[in-house]
Amino acid sequence: MKSRVFDLAKKIKLLVLDVDGVLTDGGLYYNLNGQVLKRFDVQDGMGIKIAQRVGLKIAVISGLRSEVVKARLDELGVLDYFPGYNHKLPKLKELKEKNVLQWSEIAYLGDDWVDAAPLKQVGLPMAVANAVPEIKKLALWVSSKKGGHGAVREAIMFILTAQNKLDAVWKEWVSLD
Question: How many helical (H) and strand (E) elements, i.e. helices and strands, does the chain have?
Answer without folding.
Answer: 8, 8
